[in-house]
Amino acid sequence: MDIRCTLKKNSDFRRLYSKGKSAVNPYVVVYSRRNREKVNRLGYTVSTKLGHAVVRNRVRRRLREIYRLNAHRFKTGYDIVIVARMRCVGAEYKKLEAAVLEACEKLELLEERP
């Protein structure tokens, strides 16, 4: 799977927000929707309300790393947007990873474990 496949167009984000499923927890909001491709396309949203560019980029890097390390657990063929919330800024990496995986589990994006 190519992990560099990302969502970039505003229309893709808007379609996902309006027609996709969502899961919420204190750290992130995850939106997902089936696509017609054989890869997952990911998008990350980090608002300017979270802080300056350095803070926002740190949060974005952490979210990308969480997906990269757990990409083998995800089902393929989905558009996924991860929206960072305020608690993401000061969160420990393990808590943030658990929150993202929990939200993805709610949306049934993770493969069943044998």
List the helices and strands and how they pair.
Layout lengths: L9 H10 L1 E4 L3 E7 L6 E5 L7 H18 L7 E7 L8 H14 L8
Parallel strand pairs: 3-4
Antiparallel strand pairs: 1-2, 2-4
Summary tags:
alpha+beta, about 35% helix, globular, single chain, 3 helices, about 110 residues
Q: Which residues sit in consecutive blocks of at least 5 with pLDDT less than 50?
A: none
Strand percent estimate: 15-25%
* Oligomer type: single chain
What is the N-to-C order of secondary-structure elements (H for helix, E for strand)? Answer: HEEEHEH
Give the distance, in angstroms, between the N- and C-terminal Cα atoms: 21 Å
Q: What does the radius of gyration come to?
A: 13 Å
Task: Explain what you see.
With 114 residues, the chain is α+β, with helices and mostly antiparallel strands. The protein has 3 helices and 4 strands, in the order H-E-E-E-H-E-H. It has a 4-stranded mixed β-sheet with strand order 1-2-4-3, sandwiched between helices. A hairpin with a 3-residue loop joins strand 1 and strand 2.
TL;DR of this structure?
The protein has 114 residues and is an alpha+beta fold.
